[in-house]
Amino acid sequence: MRKLRTVSLAAVALGLWGGAAAAQEIVAIYKSGTQQYFIDQAEGFQAAAEARGYDSRVINVELDSNLAISAMSDAIAGGASGIAITAPDQALGPALATAAADAGIPLIATDDPLMDEGGNPVPFAGFDGVAMGTSVGEKAAELLVESGWLDGESYGILSVEVQTLSVCEDRTNAAKEQLTAAGASPDAIVQVPYDGTTDASLTAAGPLITANPQVDRWVVVACNDEGVLGAVNALGNAGFQPDEIIAVGLGAYEACRPWAAGLPTGFKAALYLSGTDVGAAAANALIDSIESGEPLPLNTVADTTIVDPTTYADVMPCE
């Protein structure tokens, strides 16, 4: 956090205090700051800011739209030179964009795209949702075909979806397209609505699993690792064994934990996303814009990698 200093107005005006001006501050606001992905993203954001001589501050709003608006106002009032935000609701885009424009500071949306009041995209740093879902779906389809479940087994597909968030729908819709293209029946798909958290996925998946007693094998895809984890836990509660589950995570930070511990798990693969890279990209884009006076690039897209129990350690840490 910014350190408070008491200096004379004359010294500030002349730029004489300490021989240099105080460092500028950039702020990151995250909708779910306690999730590992956003913890990683915050670390990347702060490390990049520090490396370039900027102060930084991270604010967690835990899916609360009112807190997000307040955090934005507080950041502007506190003198932020630029703001990155993963908003809890994409409908906040016009209000957030207007606030930043009125303050004359750059705003970048991270992870979840936003639109301004004119319907124009706010500059974005993150991942391509369709490409992510396609990768997850391709891997899930590959594992489903290899399993032989398509040849006579009674299988189902749990598609765990944040149905109010376009970037999540991009992911799960693309995953479902790949599964059906590989021969899975659209009738096998069971949609599980949740809010992006593990507990919500667990709670929503349980009754839907119970309502389909004819299914003895399940494929699981979701908007994030938390969604997959909740559904896998619900399947475990219902008596399903790891070899009766093909779950492909999206994030890999939850999937890798049983892999690292050598535990049997329904997670058979996952798409690794580096939150650290997104945070650093957002910070650097903001700082470049602040220092050059040029607009932010419209899109800064990070790479992704499919990992499994045998390959994850080569490309990612597991905490």
From TrEMBL:
Keyword set, alphabetical order: Signal
One cellular component term from this protein's GO annotations in UniProt: outer membrane-bounded periplasmic space
Signal sequence, renumbered to the chain: 1-22
Family note: Belongs to the bacterial solute-binding protein 2 family.
One Gene Ontology biological process: L-arabinose transmembrane transport
Localization in the cell: Periplasm
Main localization, broad class: periplasm
Entry keyword annotation includes Signal: yes
Pfam family, one: Peripla_BP_4
Protein name per the record: Sugar ABC transporter substrate-binding protein
Claim: Ion transport is one of the keywords in the record: no
